[in-house]
């Protein structure tokens, strides 16, 4: 902890910078001299950070996938049985011209009957009906909100029944909100655990240097001067833990990306996992460094308040 003596003629800014640089280098040196202890501390912190971050990333990908699915939701418009096929074709052309409609597929009664016969295997029972009871069906793909389009389609005089399933989206939104809240709760709990890990590690380091700190206090060293190396030690633990957490999440992403892409391709989708970008990675590293800095600051401040000599 002994800092180099300031050279004469140096400005206060240069001296301040030298003290901080020395504290940072000294903290890194102490970490390198205890590789196993450093690895254990960084590993525990990294896992505590990776769990909520992985959950948040998974929820973000699920929400992005759900948004893509919502845009492709179909609205089924069953026309009245009295509507002729020619009128159904005209209505399909009219709907295709709407800006809120991406595409329209017309399924005529004969096609619907053939599909029903093939799907159920009840050909004899269907033949016994004599006439075709099925109406024309328009399968409409919206470009925007399916519920708004469904309300418009329900007002068509030719429409007998309009079906669309929006309940699944509302339930999914509810689960996503719950998952997001759960992720933040886990982040708070595991972040507190990481803070305690750093604090305990720094506390052990303080105990080992107790006599040295006492000498510095007798010589009149300020609390900021004594605290500074430990703050940098906690910040270094945080940065290394954040980097390891990102590495673990990247490895998980690489392991899951290919099989998920193949699964999505089998359903005709181009969906792919989306990990953390450079900006998010930088934010995670800064947050992890601040977490380590805070843990070290709390422990060091508590120790200095107990050991600071008082004037009698």
UniProtKB/TrEMBL annotation:
Q: How does it sit in the membrane?
A: Multi-pass membrane protein
- Which residue ranges does the record assign to the FtsX extracellular domain? 74-159
User: Which Pfam families does its entry note?
Assistant: FtsX, FtsX_ECD
Gene Ontology CC entries for this record: cell division site; plasma membrane
Q: Where in the cell is it found?
A: Cell inner membrane
- Membrane spanning segments where? 39-60, 182-202, 230-256, 276-299
- List GO BP terms, alphabetically: cell division
Keyword Transmembrane tagged: yes
Record domain ABC3 transporter permease C-terminal: where? 185-304
Q: Does the keyword section mention Cell membrane?
A: yes
Annotated InterPro entries: ABC3_permease_C (IPR003838), FtsX (IPR004513), FtsX_ECD (IPR040690), FtsX_proteobact-type (IPR047590)
- Where is it mainly found? membrane
Tree of life domain: Bacteria
Keyword annotations from UniProtKB, A to Z = Cell cycle, Cell division, Cell inner membrane, Cell membrane, Membrane, Transmembrane, Transmembrane helix
> What function does this protein fulfil?
Part of the ABC transporter FtsEX involved in cellular division.
How is the quaternary structure described?
Answer: Forms a membrane-associated complex with FtsE.
Q: Which family does it belong to?
A: Belongs to the ABC-4 integral membrane protein family. FtsX subfamily.
> What NCBIfam families does the record point to?
FtsX_Gneg
Q: What is this protein called?
A: Cell division protein FtsX
